Amino acid sequence: MDSMKVFSGRAHPQMSREVADYLGLKLGRALIQAFPDGELLVKLEEDVRGRDVFIIQPTCPPQNDNLMELLIFIDCARRASAERVAAVVPYFGYARQDRKDEGRVPITAKLVANLISTAGADRVLTMDLHAAQVQGFFDIPVDNLYAEPVLSRYFAEKNLSDLVLVSPDIGNAKRARAYAHRLGGEIAIIDKRRVSGEEVEPGRIIGDVRGKTVLMMDDMITTAGTVCGAAKLCRDQGAKHVYVGATHALLAGRAIQRLLESAIDHVAVTNTLPIPAETRKALGEKLTVLSVSELIGEAIHRIHHDESVSSLFL
Question: Which of 17, 114, 123, 282 has its CA 20 to 30 A from that of 99?
Fold first, then answer.
């Protein structure tokens, strides 16, 4: 394993340590410091010449700071003569800005893809991109992992009866089908309308949830407006329980308050980005955080040894 080095940015060092432990490695030593004017310095304190370098850095809030740190880290490894540089970005920020849905707006997901490629990354390893087409914005290989095996295993152990997988919006129907295939149960879809970045107006449920246990799976929970509104609609339509699972727990704005006041019984998320201790304490037993560190670690192992990553999800 001496031919591989794993480094961590400052965005999520706990996950980086867990990944390194799975691989049986120590995290690479690096100096990361800010100058008085705010400019950032990254210096590798280990030799990486001719090695595979993996840099773990989700671009979670503060997105701009973490993204800039990742870009500098990549450039540093490239200029230190690493053989291959892989950006491990468990949560890929700006992925939602993936199209021009009105005039005079950017496609920021494409811009970020260009920045990572130009910085010198040879490939990107990420998890549950908001839109699969973001992979096409890169001119380098992208491995988009799925948290589905981890979340499915957790909910399977709960032995939920009378299960119906509810997609909180039409665009999420494919994800609901994937979980229904693994866990069994029926499928229902909620027709929603987004009022603003903070507010979502649920419409109607396509399917039957009366007397059922509802399980809603999404790629992320940001303000929790979508899942909380969908949960209320399901309860109003006679659902007896509502469980929610998501990969990325951004929990911004009034998300925590909404989840506490919602009709949701329990929420399970993964550790693709750091979840503060105060957030865990506030939500208490209503929140479970599942680790995907081993999954990411295994993907890194397979990339380094030129083995199949997609076979992890067969």
Answer: 123
The whole-angstrom distance between residue 313's C-alpha and the CA centroid of its chain comes to 16
Torsion of CA 216, 245, 149, 311, to 10 degrees: 80
Q: What is the pLDDT of residues 125-147, one digit of tens each?
A: 999 999 889 999 999 999 999 99
User: Which pLDDT belongs to residue 204?
Assistant: 85
What contacts 81, CB < 8 A, 6 or more positions away?
48, 49, 50
Residues 169 and 205 in one domain: yes
Q: Which is catalytic among the residues 192, 212, 232, 286?
A: 192
276 plus 211 within the same structural domain: yes
Q: Are residues 273 and 170 in the same domain?
A: yes
285 and 165 in a single domain? The answer is yes
Whether residue 254 is predicted with pLDDT greater than 80 in this model: the reply is yes
Is 192 part of the annotated catalytic residue set?
yes
Angular region, 151: left φ>0, alpha ψ -120 to 50, beta rest: alpha
- Distance between CA atoms of residues 280 and 122, nearest Å: 36
- Identify the domain containing residue 309 by its residue range: 4-146+293-313
Segment 233-250 mean pLDDT:
97
